[in-house]
């Protein structure tokens, strides 16, 4: 058995970031690259080994513009629900600025991908079975010089998005992934709390001795 290049794999896992401001809005994304990444994504594990997903790749400029409008205009009650939020930390402010940038430029992102899956029952519903594939897709993008991030804002208007995209009843949209080549150099590991501080063993609150 050939041993994996662990250093490369670890670097990929450690430095795959949510990319918003560094998406290249001018460089086209070849369809073949998206297809390669999806071929890798559909190898992800799924609950009961059922691959109930569908992947909607949106290249058409008019459709992307409509999806961007749905993304940036949630219902009024949702748009005003965050008025009483506490003051953001510097890190939270950077994330908010980044999210605002994407909000303003979503229509310019060259490709939008909407992962969908059949609505199923079960204890956990449909969501857990598709997100491993979503993450595999993002890792595959990263390894080819592209970036993305998981967004869900358009799901406040999921029914309208389904009409725009022709998604039939019985399928749920998991998220919306803006896809583009990323600009600048490589990504650095993020500042995170050590896993040991947030990992419990056998019982909540019980850390390793």
CATH class: Alpha Beta
Question: How many β strands by DSSP?
Answer: 5
Query: In whole angstroms, how far apart are the ends?
Result: 36 Å
In one word, what is the shape? globular
Under CATH, the topology can be stated as NADH Oxidase
Overall helicity: 25-40%
Biggest beta sheet summary: 5 strands, antiparallel
Please name the CATH architecture: 3-Layer(aba) Sandwich
| Poorly predicted regions | none
Please render the helix and strand layout as text.
Blueprint: H1 6-15, H2 31-41, E1 53-58, H3 61-72, H4 76-79, H5 90-105, E2 111-118, H6 127-143, E3 146-147, H7 158-165, E4 171-173, E5 177-181
Antiparallel strand pairs: 1-2, 2-4, 2-5, 3-5
Helix pairs in contact: 2-6, 3-7
Key phrases:
209 residues; alpha+beta; NADH Oxidase; 5-stranded antiparallel β-sheet; 5 strands; globular
Overview in brief:
The protein is an alpha+beta fold. It is 37% helix and 11% strand. Strands 1, 2, 3, 4 and 5 form a five-stranded antiparallel β-sheet that branches.
Describe what you observe in this structure.
By secondary structure, this protein is α+β, with helices and mostly antiparallel strands. It has one domain: NADH Oxidase (3-Layer(aba) Sandwich), CATH 3.40.109. It is 37% helix and 11% strand. The protein is built from 7 helices and 5 strands; from the N terminus they run H-H-E-H-H-H-E-H-E-H-E-E. Strands 1, 2, 3, 4 and 5 form a 5-stranded antiparallel sheet that branches. Helix 2 crosses helix 6 and helix 3 runs antiparallel to helix 7 (158-165). It is globular and about 55 Å long.
